[in-house]
Amino acid sequence: MAGDFTYGNQVTLADVCLVPQIYNARRFSCPLDAYPRTMAIASRCERLEPFIRAFPDTQEDAVVS
Q1: Residue 21 · residue 13 · CB < 8 Å
Q2: Is 29 within a domain?
Q3: How many other CB atoms are there within 10 angstroms of residue 16's CB atom?
Q4: For residue 38, which of 61, 21, 62 has the smallest C-alpha distance?
Q5: Is residue 33 part of a domain?
Q6: Which helix (H) or strand (E) covers residue 25, if one does?
Q7: Which residues pair with 8 in a beta bridge?
Q8: Domain boundaries, position 48
Q9: What does DSSP assign to residue 58?
Q10: What is the residue-level pLDDT of the chain in tens, covering all 65 positions?
């Protein structure tokens, strides 16, 4: 199914599960260039306020190294 997100044009549980995986893949420098559609979906999600507020490094008790 084509759309802006994993399954269509609305955020679903699949997107909610995808974003943390991409976050950690970046954190550990995993190569992600082979997944342009996945990265485009993650990028769209990461621009949404609920995702921004949920990023680990935006939490009050985040330890930034």
Answers
A1: no
A2: yes
A3: 14
A4: 21
A5: yes
A6: helix 13-27
A7: 5
A8: 13-58
A9: G
A10: 689 999 999 999 999 999 999 999 999 999 999 999 999 999 999 999 999 999 888 888 878 76
The answer to whether residue 3 sits within a structural domain is no
Report d(CA 31, CA 59) in Å as an integer.
26
pLDDT in the model for residue 62: 76
Residue 65 lies in a domain: no
Q: Which residues contact 42 (CB under 8 A, 6 or more apart)?
A: 18, 19, 22
First-last CA distance in the chain: 40
- Could you tell me the pTM of the whole model? 0.85
How many whole angstroms from its chain centre is CA 47? Answer: 9
Exposed (0-12), middle (13-18) or buried (19+): which is 18, by Cβ within 10 Å? Answer: middle
Task: Please count the structural domains in the chain.
Answer: 1
Amino acid identity of 61? D
